[in-house]
Amino acid sequence: MLFRRRAKKRVCVIGLDGVPHGLLTRLASEGVIPATAAILRLGHLARMTVSLPEISSVSWSSFMTGANPGTHGIFGFTDLRPQSYELRFPSFRDLRAPTFWDRLGAAGKRCIIINQPATYPAREIAGVLVSGFVALDLRKAVYPPGYVPRLERMGYRIDVDCSSPDALLGTLHETLAARERAVAYLWQAESWDYFQVVITGTDRLHHLLWDAGAQPDHPRHQAFLDYYREVDRVIGALRERFEKLTGTLDGLFLLSDHGCDGIRREVYLNAWLRRQGYLRYAKEEPESLADIAPDTKAFALDPGRIHLHLRGRFPHGTVDAADASKLKAELQAGLRSLEFEGAPVMREVFDAGDIYSGPVVGEGPDLVALSHHGFDLKGSVKRPEVFGRSALQGMHTWDDAFLWCAQPAPEGVNIVDVADIVSSRLIE
User: Fold this and answer.
1) pLDDT of amino acid 8
2) Pairwise CA distance, residues 184 & 198, whole Å
């Protein structure tokens, strides 16, 4: 009797950093991204919510662990060193939960991960890991390190130049091309079960040139669309590779880590706290959180994280734990009533205990503010005004990320669910 050999199960995930559901569907309907549009028609596209706060380091950490910040321990792009007011940048070493690639590796599956944010410095996995933003040194961003010379020879770039719109446009395409060369090489060089690549140029484009995408008469409108056309070409090529290898699209996934929208005003939460009497500095023009005065009751970190100045948690903290609930309620009420030109600023102000769960909830903020689209929350200590603007044009949003897969996603899908959805295709 002859037995047909079972085809090897494979999964390929394409991450598009910061691409909102609305923009994706608009560009697809307008014919800008035909290859992606063809994929969207062959499966199921879901609008997806993400982690709070809605920033890449938190959302990608939730994606890769299938856990929320109260378990994986990444609460922001920056955080405070314990018992201090000194900011630090959490790294991959600070992740408290295993990734689903770790689980796949334990099950004998080999993973190729390219340009994954929040994985620097690279650590050992069962396969290959090339760290993404914020990776500083390619030699520390690659596991196994033997691949570093090959990536260097192919001109691999970790990120684009965001110093100005012109610098950005000058490096977007070459960075994407280098990423594609790495994909092509590792696709063939390794015998893999799980393959993932993240394109981060989309997020950078939105931050600096969101208006160019939204306004047809903008002088850089075509440049905005041209980059998306190139991203579309890369997605189409990956689809063809995967379908040729597997004969199906069942293991293909596309997703973003958060959405994006234009900025109406930036909102400087520490300026609001100062005006309301909750925050005081030891000098008139503060330079950092180290200038907080002892009688401060609360302060903010980017983008909408509010910490109570608790006794025992912070060096000069004076808020007693017994007063925390009342203070949080006051802050929530005040922020919920905040308006700009008659428009409400806040969609909600969450008690962290209501949105986080796990062993490290107490290391995070006490409140997490979620704004309406158009109001970009900031934790600057130097801006004296509550509402202002900077050179940034695009802001992150919580409720309009996307997930595409061949089979329907669960209703109300959140990025924390994706780890199980993806890994279940490889581990029964």
Assistant:
1) 84
2) 14
- Residue-wise pLDDT tens digits, 343-392: 999 999 999 999 999 999 999 999 999 999 999 999 999 999 999 999 99
Query: Cα–Cα distance between 58 and 60 in angstroms, integer?
Result: 6
CATH topology of domain 11-263+394-423: Alkaline Phosphatase, subunit A (3.40.720)
* CATH architecture, domain 266-388: 2-Layer Sandwich (3.30)
The letter for the amino acid at 389 is R
Decide if 11-263+394-423 and 266-388 have a common fold. Answer: no
Residues in contact with 286: Cβ distance below 8 Å, sequence separation at least 6, in sequence order: 292, 381, 382
User: Where in the chain are the domains?
Assistant: 11-263+394-423, 266-388
